[in-house]
Design goal:
4 helices; about 130 residues; mainly alpha
């Protein structure tokens, strides 16, 4: 069961991992504060898992937003095309732009989901 000091150290380790500090720097800080071996590994692994979960949650939101834009663009296009028998040039460009933006967000979210473990640097830079 983690102690209060261990929880405080975990918050410090998590902050370092989220900001993209190197593994060596994190373990150096843990060693300086008296955490070595299995406890240090556990704190670091837990912080890394939380970082990956955060990246995946952000990517999932991007993926969902992209899918919503794609569906909205296609729905407007289909509604005008099949409902009214045609669509104006400007509305067509608007719907194509909406679908293109949706595809961009969808692909960005999908890549973020698949490559969450390989992401380097601060999480603040990616949002």
């Amino acid at each position: 069961m983690p102690t209060i000091n261990e929880d405080r150290m975990y918050e410090s380790v998590l902050r370092m991992v989220v900001w993209g500090e190197s593994k060596q720097d994190v373990f150096q800080r843990l060693t300086i504060n008296g955490y070595e071996g299995e406890i240090a590994q556990r704190l670091y692994a837990r912080a890394c898992a939380e970082r990956v979960a955060s990246i995946r949650m952000t990517s999932l939101k991007k993926l969902g937003l992209g899918l919503a834009f794609i569906v909205a663009g296609i729905a407007v296009l289909a509604g005008f095309w099949f409902g009214f028998g045609g669509i104006t040039r400007y509305l067509l460009l608007l719907t194509l732009g909406t679908v293109a933006f949706g595809l961009w967000r969808f692909i960005d979210g999908l890549c973020g989901l698949m490559l969450a473990r390989q992401k380097e640097g601060s999480l603040a830079d990616s949002e």
